[in-house]
Amino acid sequence: MHCCIPEVVQVIFEYVYDPISEEDDTEGRVTMAGLARTCRAFKDPALDVLWAQLDSLDALVLCSGGSRDRRNQTIWDRPLYSSDWRILENYAKRVRTLTISPDSETWHISTMRLLNCFPLPGPLLPNLTKLNWLSDNEEYFPFLHCFCGPNLKTLKLSPALWGVSKCVAVASLASSCPLLEEFLCAGADHFSMHAISEAILGWNNLRLLQVGPVDEQALAHAGSLETLQELHFSAPSDPRSSMLEFCTPNALISISIPTPSFFQAFMQHVRFSIQRLEIHCSIYDDSLPERFFSHLQACLVHPRELTRLVLIVSKISDEDASNESIVLSSHMLHPLLSFKGLNHLDLGHSCTAHIDDTFLREMALSCPNLQELCHIPLEAPRQLLCLGIFFDATFKSDMTYVFSVDAVSPNITEFLVGASPIGDPVKVATVLSFLFPSVTRINHSIPNGLPIELQERRGNWETVNMWLEAFVSARKESRQQGWLEGKAGVKEDTVV
User: Could you give the 3-state DSSP secondary structure of residue 49?
Assistant: First the structure.
């Protein structure tokens, strides 16, 4: 048989059963098992597809002489001999992705201890490239190194419960998987800082780093990597005495902070040489500092090179629940005019009603490449493709609204309204259909299960979409009718 056939067969088999699909495909798995037994040419490619992704260790235990006990846990109730280890090796080498989650903890701790006795050199799963270790079981962490080999590229950990075993195991990870490219432990608390920081110092090929708080040395190391594409971290709570520099022009820097005021203090000790910055605040507790964007401008070494800026606040504090969003003014946002390379600006659910048209015209001139503008008033730069705003769509019944032709934005195809208040859905649909003729659907961010007032808003915005669909359909039919009439007129002139 030609040497390239097994690879071709495996590609074909992956269409029969996709091992990385999130949907449970029992029929595809049964078909693949049948193909593995059909002939020798199909056996290895089919087994590679079947074993590519495991959601627990059960299959490895059961295929090598294991069984289930009365509590449905997989165990080896007898010693493992060379024939058992060979069977285990034959299947283990095919695994590319392994997930260890609380739901898949269906094996006894003695199973882990036996796996740790794997007699062959190297890791138990030598070709494993992705490991999702989501279990918080302290008994399992001493065995984490058994699964982390030189081919591991992605490692995801649960952010919770940083006990002694977990900290020790994570701190020593770099020696087991030195070529790791993606490490994800988003939202980890301060108890994880020292363990994760020590591991980061040993990785030199990171592309994606998503962690909680880490120390200054680890941040400096990650920021110096040429391979880095995304860095997500939580700003440390302790004040810094030395300056921290980020010189990663091609990487996205995403910083999680408690409040906007906290970030303003953090900015006093950092310098960014970056093009993309996202700031995620956990809570908005009072008011945005007047000079917030001035301080942001000052900590950017090259403000003109910033292409993406996002400011998101997750929730409003209970003490300030009367306010629905951060209130921004033209004066506060004036430093943004120096960010001349911006093509994406997202101010979250901020209230931008106090931003005047003069500032918007200045921004359109200062940022000629701006294509995505979220939560800015309606008269926005005409080159925009995506627009998101938080505004009051409760039009008064006794007033007539007049819009100039210049207000129409035919290039915008995506429109987001967040949780904006809304009145008559028909009026709103009529106005938005006129202003944004290329938009076919209005996107909101109001989930189910919220208070009645917000559910009414959700229903009204869905009604807007229903009417918008009708308006779009009518406009399309009108265009077609006009084209047919024009075509008929041309034919009559030709005949005459």
Answer: helix
| Both tokens assigned to 474 | 């009518």
Q: Measuring CA to CA, which residue among 227, 194, 196, 193 is closest to residue 213?
A: 193
Which two three-digit tokens encode residue 453? 């007032």
The model's pLDDT over 330-386, given as tens digits with 9 standing for 90+, comes to 888 899 999 999 988 888 767 666 677 788 778 878 888 887 776 554 444 555 677
Tokens at 441, concatenated: 């659907």
Q: Which residue has the tokens 């030195």?
A: 178
Q: Read off the pTM.
A: 0.75
* Geometric angle at alpha carbon 11, from 48 and 101, rounded to 5°: 45
| Residue type (1 letter), 40 | R
Q: How far apart are CA 410 and CA 407, in angstroms?
A: 10
Contacts of 416 (CB under 8 A, 6+ apart): 374, 386, 387, 388, 389, 442, 443, 444, 445
One-character DSSP codes across 208-267 = EEE-S---HHHHHHHHH-TT--EEEEEPPSSPPSS-EEE--TTSEEEEEES-HHHHHHHG
Q: What is the dihedral of CA 284, 286, 290, 292, to 10 degrees?
A: -30
As a whole number of angstroms, the distance between CA 155 and CA 145 comes to 12
Residue 415 forms beta bridges with which residues? 387, 442
Please name the helix (run of DSSP H) or strand (run of DSSP E) that holds residue 68, with its range, or none.
strand 67-68
Span 432-463, pLDDT tens digits? 887 778 888 888 877 776 667 777 888 888 89
Q: Which tokens belong to 219? A: 């941040």
Largest Cα span, the chain: 99
